[in-house]
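Need a sequence for this fold. Nothing fancy.
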């Protein structure tokens, strides 16, 4: 690791040690299928329970931890590999929750995508020549970004997009609305979830707040994702905290992403000016960012005095 890590603060050295513990070569949990390439270094979501095989690598965990474990410690190549590997599995406009080396990724997280976008932004700002990442070609695990194909088929990884194009796809799909039912839905995928929990819906209401909103009471779309499993307690299939609606951390990450791409476009470093909403109208990133800015406090601020409640939603 760079000398500044070795001579850095005690906290930085602890991050470095932790990165050695949880980021390493694990054949059963490669970032990509072996048929696609030989990348086998991956980050564990936590030891010892997430050590190997498909349960090792989780989208939200990787990208929450990526700055501290891989960028602060100078492991930029590993950070880039994780960003590109998850980007290659973009489907339905979402980054997967469980990666499973890209073989059978699961898209039951509404927040992993936004943590990925934040990690891309942080990498671009942190690494030398970081913005070059936006032009990096990424082979797509699912060529059309929608249809499931087997990982060893000729179609898998047969098309490519740049990271900038993937970012645009994420934002466009959210603006248009995301509605799908998880592939292989049923007890083999999740033995506890109720049938309606496999339906994933995400949308943006540009007429009011501009917030990304979604989910339902039967699925866990964010990091508070404990699904009830007890028949005795009567909570099987009942999420501990479904958090359907506009979750504050998703809105915060959304605001960060919109501000970033709007500024990049203004500098001529991002080729897309905005998105097309579900009603066919064009919304620039600058306008979308400003809408979220205007809406945020009205919908999230809790006033000190109940006399002010009428001013907030």
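Here you go.
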């Amino acid at each position: 690791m760079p000398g500044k890590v070795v001579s850095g603060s005690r906290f930085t050295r602890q991050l470095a040690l932790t990165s050695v513990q949880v980021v390493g070569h694990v054949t059963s949990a490669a970032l990509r299928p072996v048929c696609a390439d030989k990348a086998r270094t991956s980050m564990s979501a936590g030891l010892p329970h997430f050590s190997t095989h498909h349960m090792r690598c989780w989208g939200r965990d990787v990208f929450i931890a990526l700055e501290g474990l891989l960028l602060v410690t100078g492991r930029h190549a590993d950070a880039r590999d994780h960003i590109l590997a998850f980007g290659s599995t973009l489907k339905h406009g979402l980054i997967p929750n469980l990666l499973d080396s890209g073989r059978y990724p699961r898209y039951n997280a509404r927040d992993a995508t936004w943590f990925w976008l934040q990690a891309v932004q942080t990498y671009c700002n942190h690494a030398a020549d970081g913005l070059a990442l936006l032009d990096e070609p990424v082979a797509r695990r699912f060529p059309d970004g929608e249809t499931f194909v087997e990982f060893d088929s000729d179609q898998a990884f047969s098309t490519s997009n740049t990271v900038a194009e993937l970012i645009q796809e994420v934002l466009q799909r959210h603006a248009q609305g995301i509605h799908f039912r998880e592939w292989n839905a049923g007890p083999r995928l999740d033995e506890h979830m109720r049938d309606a929990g496999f339906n994933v819906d995400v949308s943006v209401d540009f007429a009011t707040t501009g917030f990304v909103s979604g989910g339902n009471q039967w699925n866990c779309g964010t990091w508070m994702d404990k699904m009830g499993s007890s028949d005795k307690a009567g909570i099987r299939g009942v999420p501990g905290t479904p958090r359907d609606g506009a979750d504050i951390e998703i809105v915060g990450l959304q605001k960060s992403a919109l501000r970033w791409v709007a500024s990049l476009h203004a500098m001529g470093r991002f080729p897309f000016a905005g998105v097309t909403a579900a009603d066919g109208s064009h919304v620039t990133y600058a306008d979308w960012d400003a809408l979220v800015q205007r809406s945020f406090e009205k919908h999230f601020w809790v006033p000190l005095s109940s006399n002010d409640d009428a001013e907030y939603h």
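For context: The first helix runs from residue 3 to 6.
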